[in-house]
Amino acid sequence: MKDRLPHIPGEWIDRTREVGFRFEGEACRGYAGDCLSSALWAQGRRVLGRSFKYHRRRGVLSLANHDVNVMVQQGQRPNVRGDLEEVADGAEYSVVNTSGGLARDRAGVIGRLAPFLPVGFYYKVFGSRRLFPRWERLIRRMSGLGRVDFATPQLRTPKRYDFCDVLVVGGGPSGLAAALAAASAGASVLLTDETARIGGSGLFQLGADAARRAVTRALIDRVATHPNIRVRVGSCAVGYYADHWVPLVDAEKLTKVRAGAVVIATGAFEQPAVFRNNDLPGVMLASAAQRLIYRYAVRPAERAVLLVANDDGYRAALDLASNGVEVPALVDLRSQPGDGALLEAVRQAGIDSLTGCCIFEAHANAQGTLSGVTVCPLNDDGTPRAHEQRYVACDGLLMSVGWAPAANLLYQAGTAMGWRDNVEQFAPDRLPPGVFAAGRVNGVYTLDARIQDGRRAGQEAAATLGFGQAPQQAVLAERRSPTHPWPVVAHPAGKNFIDFDEDLQLKDYETAVLEGFDNIELLKRYTTNGMGPSQGKHSNMNALRVLARLTGRKPAEVGTTTARPFFHPVPMSHLAGRGFAPERRTPLYARHQALGAVWMPAGVWQRPEYYRRAGVDRAACIASEVAAVRRGLAIIDVGTLGKLEVRGPDAGEFLERVYTMRYAKLAVGGTRYAMMCDESGVVIDDGVVARFAPDVFYFTTTTSGAANVYRELSRLNAIWKLDCALVNLTGAYAAVNLAGAGCAEVLSRLTELDLSASAFPYLGAREGSVAGIPARLMRVGFVGEWSYEIHVPAVYGLALWDALFAAAPGLVPFGVEAQRLLRLEKGHVIVGQDTDGLSTPFDIGADWAVKFDKPSFIGKRSLRLVAARPPRQRLVGFKLVAGFQGAPPQECNLVIEAGEIAGRVTSIAWSEAVGAWIGLAFVAPERATEGTSFVIRCSDRREVHATVVARPFYDPADLRQKAPSAEVSA
Amino acid sequence: MKILTCPVNGPRPVSEFVYAGELRELPDEDSCSDAEWADYVFNRSGAPGIKREWWCHAPSNIWFIAERDTALDLVLRTYLYGEST
């Protein structure tokens, strides 16, 4: 480890634990606590990655968790960032974006093709539809970042919830001060930082001044021991959502934090200068060099030149000089250096400071890494005096020319940001309620001022929640800008990069503007500036400046692009949730299971589709269930139906306003069909209403409509304020339909109720006991046989089922499929299957159910309009021709009339009872009369003829469901 | 995730609520013209502004009115229907 420095106070590495890993197949060593980039740099490696487009050699740039120069694949993990990844013993890393490895990347040749890869390349090339597939294949192969391993095992990533009064994002000096201030006021504080330790720049931007470090250390010590503060490191706040809802992402999990107030103290991203070859390995941000020294005890270079435009750069020079780096020159873009004391300290360290100068270009050695720089004086207008060149040999060039606020979360929270000339950056003008900014992101840069600003923000955040008083203190204004307004130097040979992610050079922006893309959003998309993995964290500011200058505007007038979540890439596994789709089961679930039920979903419910029997196929199982109903006795679980009760003097009035029929005069002990429309007159639900007392109505809805019907009826009653109350009994009641001619005889063994046709007629409803269980019974005709719907409290569901089976040992259970056929034979409509979002009662032949002679009901006004118009379509029953052979049409196959679509099949099935394929279909009104034939086009375009027949298909006079079984058989 | 304040249950995450559109005046069925009725049934105003909306706290089935600035997605107040106008 040739570039490892002696012990540095506060270093993150553990020198007692060496780790061995492989990088590009070669054995490497580092210390526990090293990031991949620092471990490699310590070994003297300078080329750590290849660029995205031109495959140029790249080293460390920012080392601030968004350094995309070093992106590696580790096993199944693609695009692991070298500055974020703590090296693990035994890990193997390979660089993404190469063709044949980092050292001999065959794609490096692309750099020489650069003149043929103009800006807006995609748009220019993809104009040709014919060539598109070829380009697409080529570009996908060339520009893919990591490799996705489709064999990656599914990981269950935990999700957590957390709550606090004040969430402080960022653990630098301002964040620490904010956390302490809020906590001291009494608020519970969660302090989060994306790096492994808190302290931020307070522990590496030192200027070789131990006192600065001590200030931050003291804050850290107080935070660590404060009972109101919890600290989460290695935990990135990746977005801001409504009402202070902030997701924190760490290595293992996603934590959703709900805070009372949020302090954004996310600091600023150091920005690169733009000059020729500013991407050579060895050229890096000054803060990156300081991180290498103070976090990882790694020497950034042997001999380093500094390019500065602020006090931070002078401090960086002192940090380097005091840690064994030779500093031959400090190049200051400004003609007047700033802080006198720093200038003096730099002089005393023997550093030659050149003011009013720039780096004209950087030079590479045979290995492609930095070997020296050309320094030029600057004219007053900021252009270089290229003929006054001075060459300085160096293997490091550190840039400290300015900052851009890490304001992503502030933008997402809806902060109005405004340009500040004094710091050459955007800063919050107007913050949303409960959101506060502190430190560099707020345009405050000097260390003392940042701490003060943090304290102010922390107190304000606590005060909004009622803890303590908000200070009457304005944000402190910086006297000298830490950011240079134009750190850009043109060069005839180019390769002066603005966006390192996407290899975009200064001339690309000039070309784009010339081609008319002179708006920041257009420029972004055309050049792809800021669209790489780091999302413009080191390119947006310079792009904005370049655009401003090219279009003669101020940066404030150019504006910024939208900062969307996420702030930092989030692994898909952290976002993927477990499927928590609720599934409802009736109380009889276990009995169905034991009987071999094949389950099907019906809304949120699971229902038996049919019951499987050994050696019998699905169709035969269903057919035998149907036969059992028609033959004499069978049972179906109808507990999934919506079951509502409305009670009160106005209960009848309520139902009359809701449903299309009349209920106020329905006799106690009677039932009536119920059809519900929406305001436009479309049928949305149906069921049966039973009256058990003058003020008690019990009614059913469709299985899938139950929740919505109950909710909507509740809303209507909130408006109508009728003297009645609604109860949802769907889950509270179990229900079965005991169907078939033999049902009354079986039931009579279990109940005292008089089941005779005169005492309990068709459409009657009774309360009584069945097998000692309190029950509500209704004589219904849905399946076309004598049948009783028996509703009992859910806890007795199993007891009822068992009692019925005990009373009738041969009782056959039937499923939803059999029921669908049985009701089809009776011509009954299933709302949602035989109707759609446009079907009115008239369309489906339910004119009889619409009672216009009552004051109002939902949909009445619309139905009056519909009734006055010629019908659009009609639902009819049909039969296929006798002896039809081949595959029958399917539901949703189209009805064709003179080559045009005239309707569709809504239900179709083979009916053994009728001896034909029967179904329901929408047809043109003029085709709706009995005996008319129409054409159905099958999925395979065959045309099948069908004939309109009267409904019901089976037992047209409804004798079987109305009359006693004895009378029917007689 | 947004927090919405149910007048009965207090502040709850918005995922517990069901939205049911703007609170609109029902025209008089008998006296309104067909065009007025059709406008009521089929047309909704999407213009941003302060709107009174129906919301339901689904687990407790509490319907209430939320006064919301749809331009800012800011809930100004919530109250039970009929309690405030």
Quick one: overall form of chain A? elongated
Strand order of the largest sheet of chain B: 3-4-5-6
Structural class of chain B: mainly beta
Given as residue ranges, the uncertain stretches of chain B (5+ residues, pLDDT < 50) are none
User: Strand fraction band of chain A?
Assistant: 25-35%
Map the helices and strands.
The complex is a heterodimer of chains A (970) and B (85).
Chain A (H helix, E strand, L loop, with lengths): L13 E10 L2 E7 L3 H7 L6 E2 L6 E2 L12 E4 L2 E5 L10 E4 L25 H5 L6 H12 L15 E11 L3 H12 L4 E4 L17 H16 L3 E4 L3 E2 L7 E5 L4 E11 L3 E3 L12 E3 H11 L7 E5 L2 H11 L8 E3 L7 H9 L4 E3 L1 E8 L5 E8 L12 E4 L2 E5 L2 E3 L2 H5 L3 E5 L4 E6 L4 E3 L9 H18 L32 E3 L4 E2 H9 L5 H8 L12 H11 L4 H4 L13 H4 L13 H6 L2 E6 L2 E7 L6 H14 L2 E4 L4 E6 L3 H8 L12 E7 L5 E11 L2 E6 L4 H15 L4 E4 L4 E7 L3 H6 L16 E6 L2 E7 L7 E7 L3 H11 L4 E2 L2 H10 L34 H8 L6 E7 L13 E4 L2 E12 L4 E8 L9 E5 L5 E7 L9 H4 L2 H5 L1
Parallel strand pairs in A: 1-7, 8-9, 8-13, 9-10, 13-26, 15-22, 16-17, 16-22, 17-18, 31-41
Antiparallel strand pairs in A: 1-2, 3-4, 5-6, 5-7, 11-12, 12-13, 14-23, 19-20, 20-21, 24-25, 27-28, 29-30, 31-37, 32-35, 32-36, 33-34, 34-35, 37-40, 38-39, 39-40, 42-45, 42-47, 43-44, 43-46, 44-45, 46-47
Helix pairs in contact in A: 4-5, 4-10, 6-7, 7-8, 11-13, 17-22
Chain B lengths: L2 E4 L3 E4 L3 E6 L11 H9 L7 E8 L4 E8 L4 E6 L6
Antiparallel strand pairs in B: 1-2, 3-4, 4-5, 5-6
